[in-house]
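Handout for the seminar on molecular recognition.
Each group receives one record of this type.
Step one: identify the two inputs.
Step two: read the structure output and locate the region that could contact FE(4)-NI(1)-S(5) CLUSTER with Oxygen.
Step three: write two sentences on what you found, then compare them with the reference statements printed after the record.
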Amino acid sequence: MDDVKNEGAEPAAAKGAEPAARSIDPAALEMLAHADDCGIETAFSRADGMKPCPIGEKGACCRICSMGPCRLVGKDAEEKTGICGADLPTIAARHFARQVAGGVAAHSDHGRDMAMTLRAVAKGEAAGYKVKDEQKLASVAGYMGIATDGREVNEIALDVADKALEQFGQPHGEIIYTKRATPRRQKLWRELGITPRAIDREVTEVLHRTHEGVDLDAENILKSSLRCSLADGWGGAMLSTDISDILFGTPSPLSSEVNLGVLKSDQVNVIVHGHEPTLSAMLVEASRDPELIAEAKAAGAEGINLAGICCTSNEILMRYGIPAAGNFLHQELAVLTGAVETMVVDVQCIMQALGPLAQRFHTQLVTTSPKAKIPGAVHVEFDEHRAPETAREIVRMAIANYPNRGPIHIPDYHEPLVAGFSHEYLNYMQGGFHRGSFRPLNDAVIAGRIRGLAGVVGCNNVRVTQDEGIVEMIKRFIAEDVMVVVTGCAATAGAKAGYLSPEILDSAGPGLREVMEAIGIPPVLHLGSCVDNSRILTVLTQVATEGGLGEDIDDLPAVGLCPEWMCEKAIAIGTYFAASGAHVIFGVSSPVEASSVATHLMTRGWEEMVGGDLEFIPDWDKMFARSLELIDAKRAALKLPAYDPSQYGDSGDSPYFAAIREYLAAHDEVETVGSPVYPLAEGHSHDRGEGGHDHAHGAGGHDHAHGEDA
Ligand code: BF8
Ligand code: SF4
């Protein structure tokens, strides 16, 4: 690879003054015009009046001590130092490492809360919750070395919860899930001394090292950020995914809808926003409670409509089929419809602007976490010991608020989607429950029908056109026979643009289409929320160990992209993918751009050290070209045939997809929402609520992270 220099400061995709440049989503554009008409500001309009600080944006500002802030600017910036002598590589690396630590802390604290809930469930102290996926519990117990034979479910669950909680502060040893990586990766991490030891310890250590006057070597600082990030990907986030599956069911594909048009003009609309599935799962139950529906009707509404924003949305979309109202930049737009009675928020990615905005409408903003309060919101604290009551209380508040509605403006955009692919389900699709495997996928990559794999993940960011980079990458990848997995706000962006609908098979290249029809999965797979990027880690690990594509993630023709990254969590995710051997490309701008040394360390330096790296390429064309270059280079290194799009002809329409299309056409939207669209794997649950349609099959949960058995 050539010496990588980051692109210029001005993202090619940066939005101009034209309103159309704010988003590619017509629903967003309609709502932004509506906001202008009403004279209401949003993040989009505030961004026009607040340019990013050009010094801080590139990592050239240090404010770690009060002798500064020191800003290293000018042509000779790389020769300058701060008051203490810290140079630009140190300053940029310190800031980056602190971003990683912030992201790891956020995901992992979420994981800790999930473990606390599991513990309360196991002890019979959390009414309304139960272990829903016993097979997943058994798999997780297996990873943790916890005996299951002849033991009660809750006994196992208690041990699993305690083992999970130990991962945060254990004084000795390594984070247990690092054993799920390939043997080669585990060895490499040990040799480099970057196997994470305990989650809280890695976060604390990065904060210590980056305190004034401690670690002053950029390479060493960045190396510590690799270890810290692994405590997220193979620690906090992976625990969060696993425990959510245990409590709420391992996802398998179901249909739903996305975009602001899922709000109903004649129903009580409750939006859940944030990241944790605990309270929102109870709100799903409450919104389907006949008694509460009757109360809503008595208040003049036709029913209760629950919808989601951000990753709380992904969590309940892929387990209950609850429609998604939108991604990060849709949060204010949802309130602007005037049709939201209550917006319930938990933690992360919640804009403080929601407080004053909600006060301009009848919308009640409800905060629920003791860690996350917002001025102007009503605080109804979530307590897992009385979650069903809390959920009912919130739904009743929404019902009582329905008559206070003023004029409403709901944009009529809602796309069908299929969501909820888990690692377990992908195994099942390719080999059945007893012979779960990734063989068909690997063979397709080896033969060149599938050129490679791409993960398109992460946020929205007002500094670039909303959804544009994400959708461009998805569209171009599948046309070039690259299979795509999506999570987080990128998944929602793809869905809004129609890329999570089975119809999209027609936009895929011929080789990819042939394989997807044969296996029976679409070319763009929704793998969940941002903590569920851990599912991508275990999927890649299995692909690497299945045979024929090398031995480890850094052998695979795969890339990870975060075109519209916004927050520290995204930085943590990008870093743990790099540390796990993946080439990762972010858009927007580089937080270390000011330092060519730090940039070099994170690209060529990391590639030499761990096989993966982190680049920042704000231009979509260049991002895509670089992705294909990386994929093709890995194919060549594996001595696989070069990708040749003319090799595979147009395939026939598979009976499988024809059946899905027929199914979707035959049902009206309301009935289709939340319905399983693929045969259910054993052990996978779909909870449609009313009608008692709860498929929680006993077995399944077949997570082959082969690395650990090898
Ligand atoms: O954790 S993608 S904007 S919502 S951080 Fe936030 Fe980014 Fe969305 Fe989910 Ni992930
Ligand atoms: Fe300036 Fe050094 Fe203090 Fe940073 S730590 S603000 S570079 S004096």
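Reference statements: The pocket of iron/sulfur cluster (ligand 2) is lined by residues 62-65, 67-70, 82-84, 86, 91, 212 (CB under 6 Å). The chain has a mean pLDDT of 90.
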